[in-house]
Amino acid sequence: MDNSILETLHKLKAKADSLLEVGNQEEAELFAAKVQELLLRYKLTMSDVETAAQDRDDPIEKEVQPPVTKGAKWWALDLAKVVSEAHFCLRFDNRSQPGAISFVGRKSDREVAIYMFIYLVRAMQQLEKEARKLLEKEKNARIAAVYEAITTGKEPPKFDTLLEVTEFTDAFYRGFTTAIKERYEAQKVKLTETYGGTALVVANKAVSTWVQNNMRFSYSGKLYGGGLSNQMGQSAGRQAGQSVELGRRGVSNKGGQRQIT
User: Is the pLDDT at 46 greater than 60, yes or no?
Assistant: First the structure.
């Protein structure tokens, strides 16, 4: 499609809107009629016009986020996937720099996605350390209680729950990411119910099309952290993921919440 047609449509629509704002409805209708005529002639929609304007003012590009941890980590890729898709972006493993992650999307969306990704990584790591300290404290207390019972000839205490220490950190990260994913999906459902899903579909399609045209390999939307058996870690991670701040605007957010630095 000739970009000049899309630009003409954008200007005509802007003119119609400005005339309507000042109360000149008759002239505004003339410009609106011209817009409809061109849309029909070239088999376009206003979504095509709006997307073209976005491509001009806020183009889709790739931005590489340096590693947030040493080496490539499955949990970083998983969390980046969840956050990027919630903010109209896609994430890719940067194969030339282990641990780095590429975010593809419009600049306004990439900025939010990358900010929220870093914020949530820091929150997740901080909350995992706190949970692990409590786990270690409980483990040491149980060991001390058993040792005391043995040395004093008493019956060793019985505990209702088994402390799952192995793979606790990885399971915590899996649970945290799952909770964040569910919360973003719930926000998306609410937005769709309120405003309709057309805008979300158009935004996601534009990024997917850019990837197909500009990147050498296709997008893989899989999550890597499945198969973890530590239920205690996953449960603690889910609780942490439900409690952390996401920001009131969620999926359509254009600015992140800065609680953890």
Answer: yes
Q: What is the dihedral of CA 219, 102, 100, 234, to 10 degrees?
A: -60
Hey, what amino acid is at 40? L
- Name the token pair of 168: 């606790």
Burial of 122 (0-12, 13-18, 19+ CB in 10 A): middle
Q: Which residue has the tokens 């969620």?
A: 250
Strands (DSSP E) along 46-196, which ranges?
60-65, 90-93, 101-106
Q: How far apart are CA 3 and CA 128, in angstroms?
A: 51
- Taking only the tens place, the pLDDT of each residue in 151-164 is 888 887 776 666 66
CA dihedral 254, 258, 259, 261 (to 10 degrees): 140
Better-scored residue on pLDDT, 199 or 255 = 199
SS3 of residue 251 by DSSP:
helix
Comparing 123 with 217, the larger pLDDT belongs to 123
The two three-digit tokens of residue 50, written as one number: 């709006």
Q: Which of 164, 181, 184, 165 is nearest to 225 (CA)?
A: 181
- Can you tell me the distance from the alpha carbon of 226 to that of 230, in angstroms, rounded to the nearest whole number? 11
Global pTM value: 0.73
